Amino acid sequence: MMIDRSYKSLMEVLASLLLNRSLDFGPVILISFDVESPIDSYIREIDTAKNIGHKNRIGLARLIEAASDYEVPFTLFSTGHALLKECRGHKSVIRIIKRNRKYGFRAGEYVWHLVDPGSNYVESPEFYYGDLIEEAVKFGVSEIASHSFSHIPYSLVDDEVAENDLKRSIEALRLHGIEAFSFAFPFNLAGKFHIFQKHGIKMVRISHRALWAISYRNGTAIVKTHITDFSITSLKHWRKIADLLSKKKTLLSWYLHPVSLYDENMFNLFKEIIKYLKNKEITFLTFRELYDAIQLT
Ligand SMILES: [Zn+2]
Description:
The chain is of the alpha/beta class.
């Protein structure tokens, strides 16, 4: 029997919302975007990377437009590399010490940023988004947060590699005058919870497999994901979710990639969902704002 995947996603989200605790200040929607340069990680194909990068920029411009038009905040979890306006090339060797089947990692050395051209946002706009990030900061509609520097799987490398990467990510955020506060795991591979507190990271986002919407580990608050990209494409299903969210006064965490807004139909759907959530008087928060709200109650 064929099971409609979108319907299965809907059922999972509704079940998860029913399980969530009610919030004194709820209902709340957290919308975040994972911003990556397509040359981050161990990608080898520069033409494919350029094509993705071009779509990324259009998606990024659209999400900035939507945040401004509807006056709603988003959290942008960006790799440090994508935050740059220029670089001199970051090719480096990363040692993976733990295998992972899903993403095809074996133990051994990987060359990271292999096709990094060492260029800038004018000559290689597909790979550097520092100019668009500046725009997002200027509109004041977003929290810019960390998605690592190089998109390294933190749980598969040793502590030193993860921590050095985190430090570089924090430095890249400082170039935009931002102190790192929240973090989303590359590949959603969560781990190394003990390194975050000492670097000022107070909130991390993990995958949808977690049971609780909010939990704590090593003094760090952990927020789960309920929906990724457009796993639910029916506006009717989205209305069901928003209605339950509003009734239960709880939390929904939805993350996307800018490239998902490249398709005009998906961008229109995104705007319809935002309008519906706003009409239901659901509060839009960034990760940092949610953290502050939890501390106050
Ligand atoms: Zn670079």
